[in-house]
Amino acid sequence: MTRQLLIAVVILFSTLIQAKPSTSQIQLPQSPTLSLSVTDFGAAGDGVRYDTKPIQFAVDACSAASAGCGVCHVVFPPGTYLTATVFLKSGVVLEIQRGAKVLGGTRLEDYPKEERRWYVVVAEDATEVGITGGGEINGQGLEFVQRFDERKNVMVSWNRTGACLGDECRPRLVGFLRCRNVRVWNVNLTQPAYWCLHIVGCENTSIRDVSIYGDFNTPNNDGIDIEDSNNTVITRCTIDTGDDAICPKTYTAPLYNLTATDCWIRTKSSAIKLGSASWFEFKGLVFDNITIVDSHRGLGLQIRDGGNVSDITFANINISTRYYDPSWWGRAEPIYVTTCPRHRNAKTGTISNLQFINITSISENGIFLSGSRGGLLRNLKFFNVNLTYRRWTNYSGGLVDYRPGCQGLVKHSIAGIIMEHIEGLEVENVNMRWSEDRSGPWDNPLDFRPSTVNNISLLNFHSGQLYTVTDL
């Protein structure tokens, strides 16, 4: 079937199934899910020629047809499909089959004029949209590396062209902007040049069985960024990337009801991080049954812009953190909870009703709990927590990391838990063990000034030294 004939058939099909019956007694039979292949619209799938137009034709035709059949699948058979930005439409699911790869272009002209729309695949103001199929979307992030550096790669920045400002001027991989009923499942998202999966202002999003991989030395290649969105579920995802893995943010609106479960994470930054963009409220977040390995920081809250955080639960989480390079935020803390103003004129948010339940960690640094004078930490609870501290890298310790903003990197004694500006801390069944530090002994389980920390309850809190490595 020629492309012109196929488009005509789709349009006719769409017109017929959208037609309203003349009486209430007449009903059209329910149609099966429609599928259209990008190859039928002329996609070559050779990884050399751009397939943008055939892909977009298929998406547009599928969306037109989906008004009568619910959801239409745009199918990518095995092959490599080089493309500029693809605009996903309402009622369309991209079905990227196993053996198929959607390859993002690396030229500035491959993306819209507006920086906010720089994605390989993006849906705007759409409903009932998604991506699946077992295949791969690849952003060719390594093509944006100007100089490889084990500390932190130097990346291409299109601000030199005047297209945007700052050093983060490069395209994201997949974005859903102001969408409803989003599903992303059974797909591989790899090598983003910037953020990987970006959920912005969305309602009812499901992300499951997704594998995310980004170069470990590339900055800003976050795994999943959830921004100003409500009712989001993330489950059974694997994230291995250089920057923050799961990162809720609030720029223009609150963020409510986020659940992340059954995930495996490795990152050179924070595995889970709220902020640092935090202008509005975070409330009702649950993180459960998560494994974090070889990360620069485990569970982090960086509240810098005046938004308040409440009712957050971290449960059944295994954490391994280690030092990498000081140029990356983090100092191997398994848990990091902070509020402070980003700059002198910024507001300060608060954090309250925060629970850590059934947490096990092996790390090179202690827990850091730091509120501020205008942004106290209130009602923190630690139940059934096992903390093991030992050093196995050669990076220097004795530093506290307040970045971004605030005080930067500050010299501080090594301690199991550092606390400041807290009102209400409940600790129950917490075991802390440590081994000799290469730069000095761990000899201070709890470090705090009574003038800034009030209402502490310790029940079954134990601390002691590890004498042999076999005790781990």
TrEMBL record:
Keywords: Glycosidase, Hydrolase, Signal
GO term, biological process aspect, one: carbohydrate metabolic process
GO terms, molecular function: polygalacturonase activity
Location of the Rhamnogalacturonase A/B/Epimerase-like pectate lyase domain: 37-94
Domain of life: Eukaryota
N-terminal signal peptide: 1-19
InterPro entries the record matches: GH28_Enzymes (IPR051801), Glyco_hydro_28 (IPR000743), PbH1 (IPR006626), Pectin_lyas_fold (IPR012334), Pectin_lyase_fold/virulence (IPR011050), RHGA/B-epi-like_pectate_lyase (IPR024535)
Family named by the database record: Belongs to the glycosyl hydrolase 28 family.
Name by which UniProt lists this protein: Polygalacturonaseprecursor
Organism of origin: Actinidia chinensis var. chinensis (Chinese soft-hair kiwi)
